[in-house]
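User: My collaborator sent over this chain with a note saying "see what the structure looks like." That's all I know about it. Can you take a look?
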Amino acid sequence: MSDGAAAGAGTSARAGARSGAGLAARILPCGDRALLVEVDALEQALAAHAALAETAPAGVLELVPAARTVLVRLDPRVLGLAHAEHWVRETLAETDPDAALPDGPLVELPVVYDGDDLATVADHWGCEPVEVVERHARTEWRCAFVGFAPGFPYLVPVDAALAPPPVPRRATSRPAVPAGAVALAAEYTGVYPRSSPGGWQLIGRTDATLWDARRDPPALVAPGARVRFVPVPELGTTRSRASSAPVAPAPPAAHGRAIEVVEPGPLTLVQDLGRPGRAAIGAGAAGAFDRAAHRLANRLVGNDETAAALEVLLGGLTLALPEGAWVAVTGGVGAVTLDGASLAPRLPARAGREGALLHIGRLEHGLRATVAVRGGLDAAAELGSRSRDTLSGIGPAPLAAGSILSIGDAVEGPVPTIDLVPLDAPDDGPLELAVRPGPRHDWFTESAHESLLSTEWRVSPRSDRTGVRLEGPGLDRTAEATGRELPSEGMLPGSIQVSPDGAPTILGPDAPVTGGYPVIAVVTDAALDSLAQARPGQTVRLRLATGRP
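Assistant: Without extra context I'll predict from the sequence alone. Here is the result:
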């Protein structure tokens, strides 16, 4: 993608900051289903998010606040990009950038200040570790946004005049930071809600539960909340206090007909169409990677298209079905048998006996198969969805041998009478994906844009549901962007992030809701299902989509 082509696609969006009254903002292109609103400071981003949330029209699916931006994710069938841009500009023109932010609830977190990096932070601040503790604990913090992981709060001082000096991230990220770790990076304080990799400087730990999907709201610290850290000699002596509802009891176990997992294959997950609308608290949508295959499999057995089904990586799955159960297999293609008899692809089949064995062999075309059973899978829901998010750990665990899957009641109509579904198997040849400009396309040189569209990229084996990494030439940044750090900003599936080594990665359904690598382009929504079937080693060509989104 040349700089000229990218600029042409987003000329009005990059017209620059407004002058005069209101909140000045830049509206940047973000593919065919989102806009990125950029302002100059965190306080302005918070004001913009509040104003947009108050006036959001139909068609706005999600608002994702971040350090200097608000991602506006749209349903373009309801609200077009041009109309959305007009709404954003009109709203921010009437927003007072100096208005005081409303005080959110106060959350007090008990902390033992014994982190491994406490002395390192003291060196950065030019003081003793005890002074770090005193300064950190006497500061009142505000949650600016939530990202990286569900419930991970990015906290900044309520009074900017009392802000401690920024602290750089560690040169080497830790492979595992324990849940409850209190940490610093740049101008932020954060608390890890679960064990995960991380490069922040650890100064202490808390036993507060930052994230519980059964709680309402699930995030203990949500955007706008105020936080005080209370030093304690040991955990368990002080309980965290917050204005949140009690934890709801787990739903009762489902009863009735069920499926037994005989062999789970390399990775088989329960998926539905995801949990959109939770990005502001750090939870991505997840959901079926190949949405078209998921919808088709459900239609073939008479289900509602949103019913939970199985996403099978590479094959190798064997299920024992109850008598009379209808099943359908779509997506990736391999040998499929029911009690030893071969089944035609993309057609419904019925189990003729109790314990009938459905087996999906190694996929010969594509990467993921979808298995739907009439009634859907009645797995436990989290945040309104039965989808497994492999990054955050939300949703039902991957299947294991002996797992029992209850069958639900998500039936919409009869099993259709069909002779053929005229669809081809996933193509193992060069895969072509349409892209549109990303918000940071101007961070890259003209030769990088040319390489993006002219290279035959190869899918890396280091790909999964969080992202599909492409192997090929490095994409160079402009001189102005070289060495520059991007404050965390909202991401959406299909965003092509470029890491500092120049390697592009196309974000998948389980990617973090915010990220700090610049996005050069975004795969169009219609092309995302094809990406789900891209096998390691397969070649990928990216082309610039034409016409208005």
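A starting point for your reply to your collaborator: The domain at 106-231 is CATH 2.40.100.10 (Cyclophilin).
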